[in-house]
Design a protein that fits this description.
Distance between the termini of chain B: 65 Å
CATH topology of one domain in chain A: Neuraminidase
Radius of gyration of chain A: 23 Å
Low-confidence stretches of chain B: 1-11
Bound molecules: iron/sulfur cluster
CATH superfamily of one domain in chain A: TolB, C-terminal domain
Helix content of chain A: under 10%
Strand order of the largest sheet of chain B: 2-1-3-4
Largest sheet of chain A: 5 strands, antiparallel
Mean pLDDT of chain B: 95
Number of helices of chain B: 21
Largest interface: A-B, 59 and 53 residues
Low-confidence stretches of chain A: none
CATH architecture of one domain in chain A: 6 Propeller
Number of domains of chain B: 3
Oligomer: heterodimer
Shape of chain A: globular
Order of helices and strands of chain B: HHHHHHHHHEHHEHHEHEHEHHEHHEHEH
Number of strands of chain A: 43
Structural class of chain A: mainly beta
């Protein structure tokens, strides 16, 4: 976890003007703020085919032929995907990885932010690089990239047998597998999707299709004995190591654990399951009937139904509360413990719980501006950009990062600011 | 009354996908598969259609294959059902491998699922649905034609139609962005911009073969000042041949990837390029299979979006296109999406002269490429062409009345009409709306 205890929770406000960047550079791409809010950066264009990373107004002396995807890791390091002389690599806080590749994309960071992985194409072979080191074995194709929560292990679905397009029957014999740290399982499948690593990276589960019709979950290379007409991405139980996944039986969806049903297949849809942090409960987005969406906990659906979707499911750190986003037409709603906040939004971002779980905050959009809402109350700020808010370790303050009238603001606001 | 089907067409060219699949069939497998699909995957809709049809043959006149084959009842919509599904039902699944081969060819290459016939049937019987049931059975039997099966495999692996690999997609966008910056200094193809108003999605042939279409779209968005983005990862492709092979599970999977990309990017709407079948899949079929009554994020077809940009004056036209055009109404966005008047608004705003082809709007003839037919590949090209002589006549009539350019705002139509125009020597230049807008619009300095 990011340790926010060392962040500056005292100063009320800090500002960094962004508008002058637009005068200095040919163009400035979408700015991004660091988790602690101390830094704001953007990819900037200096001249034809000359890009730099501008952090708090400084570009350093690194110039790239192309740079994109500037983001910050949870620990606050900036990184971007960069190219020079038609080769690609990653730059992390100004340090460019030693090795260059044919192409890099799909960057992944671990929970601490200390490790970074990317998908790699090298001489038309595919794999992943972790902290600059490419897998020893690369493959004819790779899709669905994963990094363990501790940042030690990478995984992807990989093509292990040659198969030209139009060799349909060869493809149906199975040309795909999953690779963990570059080493493919022995078993082959028609398809492998959404490999998921256990938190410590020691185990790998993925959705597999055994032939054109039978789907199941494979764990460490072995498929469950039970098959289904479809499955969605699996999750590891945080402590027991059990694997759960939504499964489809006779046109309806349920939930299976290690192959056996734990939620009856009574739903029109089940996906996006999330274990409570202690693993004691399982929540998932469900459609109890056609065109109606809600959350279910341990297979029991909430009463509040949305017409379009439910997404961004989050448990409070202590597991007492559960929040998500729901959508009806153009209105996005924040729903906490089966209760909807009164005010709808034009858009809402993943809800954020305070450390004790007693408050919920979210970045929202309303009337063409971004703002922050806490426990259903809207902050008065009307911003051109905003980032997810962060609660102070004591839960009494909120770090709010925004851009207003061309100026980046870092504010520490007491929760009392959000009173009606 | 409809006459009995007069003839059966032998398979025209060797299709390895079909041949190998048929060789593996056993009578037991055929019987159990047909029974299972009919029993557990079809419901009241199928039995109502079967019970309601009075074999009157009124649907025959609707079908371009029937009209193009001198009213041969083999090609009448009801004739296609008779030769496939009804026989399967009547025989309780006890049909031969040869029958399955013939059924696969009829359902995949002699019907475009265009739904024109549903408008002519007094009971609104939807033959396209019945042909999809046949295709589902064919899929379950492993007898789908090779080329479209390969496309379904591509969808399953890459979530796109043309085996475009993970690096090729963002690389192509960056290359197009760089090319376009020679024309518009600060033009962007903004990747992964969370909170943009629009996610723009395309079909995989665009990055693979027609990257200039992405360039043009970027130029149009740039000129109109649109807040837009494209995902750099999976979900950028809105196409869906799995919908047409009856592989509903893969259809659902690729539609989820597409919507998940839009959900991840927090966009308000998805604007899609000029493609018809993709619209059907995202707007009507794939979303519903997943449990969404309506698209969870509104889908706007390019015709609708161009209409909006022109109507609101966000795109200004420097001059009208002087060459007379005629407009093809793609089945999936016109019969399926009601966009015909908006298409006409766009055409009349852009062009000095619009020559209507007849029939038009929701009565237009299909291009014969749709419904996955063109994706069944070279072995069936001639089936499409000979099956759409009526289209050539329709186009020729529009040409006689002055049209020189044919606007086809759909990828499949575009390619299918190209074959028709070429084969029958119609002599029309074929364009997308995007081609014209890019050519005619006021371009920012
Ligand atoms: S091609 Fe169109 S008109 Fe002909 S049978 Fe199929 S859906 Fe009906
Ligand atoms: S489908 Fe309709 S129009 Fe065609 S034969 Fe049957 S009842 Fe008549």
């Amino acid at each position: 976890m990011t340790d926010s205890a060392n962040w500056d929770w005292d100063s009320g406000a800090k500002q960094i003007p962004i508008t002058p960047w637009r005068e200095r550079f040919r163009w400035v791409e979408e700015p991004n703020a660091s988790p602690d809010g101390e830094r704001v950066g953007a990819v900037v264009n200096l001249d034809e085919g000359e890009f730099a990373i501008c952090i708090n107004g400084e570009t350093g002396d690194q110039v790239f032929d192309k740079a994109w995807h500037l983001r910050f890791t949870p620990s606050g390091k900036w990184y971007a995907l960069v190219s020079e002389m038609a080769e690609w690599t990653v730059v992390v806080d100004g340090q460019t990885w030693a090795q260059n590749f044919g192409y890099v994309w799909n960057p992944l960071t671990c929970v601490s932010g200390d490790h970074l992985a990317v998908a790699v194409q090298q001489e038309m072979q595919y794999g992943m690089a972790l902290d600059g080191v490419l897998w020893e074995t690369t493959y004819a194709n790779a899709t669905y990239f994963a990094l363990s929560a501790d940042g030690q292990v990478t995984a992807a679905a990989v093509q292990v047998a040659a198969c030209d397009s139009a060799e349909v029957h060869k493809f149906q014999e199975g040309t795909f597998s999953a690779a963990i740290a570059g080493n493919a399982w022995e078993n082959r499948f028609v398809n492998v999707w959404q490999p998921v690593l256990s938190a410590d990276g020691s185990r790998l589960a993925a959705e597999v299709r055994l032939n054109l019709y039978d789907y199941t979950i494979a764990v460490d290379g072995s498929p469950w004995p039970q098959t289904f007409t479809s499955v969605w991405e699996p999750s590891f139980h945080p402590s027991s190591g059990a694997v759960v996944a939504p499964v489809r039986i006779k046109g309806k969806w349920g939930m299976a654990q290690d192959g056996d049903l734990i939620w009856q297949p009574d739903f029109v849809q089940v996906w996006r399951q999330v274990f409570r942090p202690d693993g004691g409960k399982l929540a998932a987005v469900v459609a109890p009937k056609y065109g109606r969406w809600t959350l279910a906990v341990d297979g029991r659906a909430w009463g509040t139904l949305f017409r379009d979707m439910v997404t961004d499911v989050v448990w409070s750190p202590n597991g007492d509360r559960l929040a998500a986003l729901g959508k009806n037409g153009a209105s996005w709603h924040i729903i906490v413990d089966d209760k909807i906040w009164q005010r709808p939004f034009a858009m809402a971002w993943t809800p954020v719980f305070s450390p004790a779980g007693d408050h919920v905050a979210a970045k929202v959009e309303i009337d063409g501006h971004y703002s922050i809402a806490v426990d259903g109350r809207l902050w008065s700020g009307r911003c051109e950009a905003a980032w997810n808010p962060v609660f102070s370790p004591a839960g009494d303050k909120l770090l709010v990062k925004t851009i207003e009238e061309g100026i980046y603001h870092r504010r520490v606001l007491p929760l009392t600011e959000f009173a009606d | 009354m409809a006459k009995a089907p007069a003839k059966t067409e032998p398979s025209q060219a060797l299709d390895q996908g079909l041949a190998v699949g048929v060789a593996r069939l056993t009578p037991e497998k055929i019987e159990s598969t047909i029974r299972t699909v009919l029993k557990s995957e079809t419901g009241a809709r199928l039995s109502t259609y079967v019970e309601t049809c009075i074999h009157c043959g009124l649907c025959a006149e609707a079908c371009h294959y029937y009209l193009s084959h001198d009213n041969d009842p083999h090609y009448a919509p009801v004739g296609k059902v008779k030769q496939t599904l009804w026989e399967m039902i009547k025989q309780k699944g006890r049909v031969t491998p040869e029958f399955i081969e013939k059924a696969a060819i009829i359902a995949h290459t002699e019907c475009n699922l265009c739904k024109r016939c549903a408008q002519y049937c007094p009971f609104g019987i939807d033959i396209a649905y019945l042909m999809l049931v046949v295709r589902r059975i064919i899929h379950k039997l492993g007898c789908t034609p090779l080329y479209i099966q390969d496309t379904a495999h591509s969808h399953s692996v890459t979530m796109n139609q043309m085996w475009v690999k993970g690096d090729e997609w963002p690389d192509t966008l960056q290359w197009q962005e760089e090319e376009a910056q020679a024309e518009f200094e600060d033009l962007r193809i903004p990747l992964d911009v969370e909170g943009a108003e629009i996610m723009y999605s395309v079909i995989a042939p665009e990055p693979k073969f027609q990257a200039q279409l992405i360039y043009q779209a970027a130029a149009i968005f740039h000129a109109a000042g649109v807040s837009w983005t494209m995902p750099s990862e999976l979900g950028w492709d809105n196409s869906d041949m799995a919908m047409f092979t009856g592989d509903n599970e893969i259809m659902g999977r690729i539609k989820r990837a597409h919507y998940d990309a839009a959900i991840r990017l927090k966009v308000k709407r998805i604007v899609m390029g000029e493609c018809g079948h993709a619209f059907r899949s995202v707007y009507d079929v794939g979303n519903r299979w997943l449990g969404w009554e309506m698209p969870p994020i509104p889908i706007v077809h390019a015709i609708d979006f161009y209409y909006e940009l022109l109507k609101e004056g966000r795109i200004k036209i420097t001059k009208k296109y002087p060459t007379p055009i005629t407009l093809h109404d793609p089945c999936n966005v016109v019969r399926g999406g009601g966009l015909h008047e908006k298409a006409r608004y766009v055409a009349h705003t852009l062009c000095e002269s619009v020559v209507e082809m007849t029939p038009n709007r929701e009565h237009n003839y299909c291009c014969a490429a749709g419904g996955g037919a063109i994706n069944c590949g070279p072995p069936y090209k001639q089936t499409r062409i000979s099956g759409n002589r009526i289209k050539a006549e329709q186009l020729f009539a529009a040409k006689t009345r002055g049209a020189q350019v044919l606007i086809a705002p759909c990828h499949n139509c575009h390619s299918g009409l190209h074959d028709i125009v070429h084969h029958y020597g119609v002599g029309l230049d074929i364009k997308f709306f995007g081609d014209l807008i890019y050519e005619l619009m006021e371009k920012p300095a």
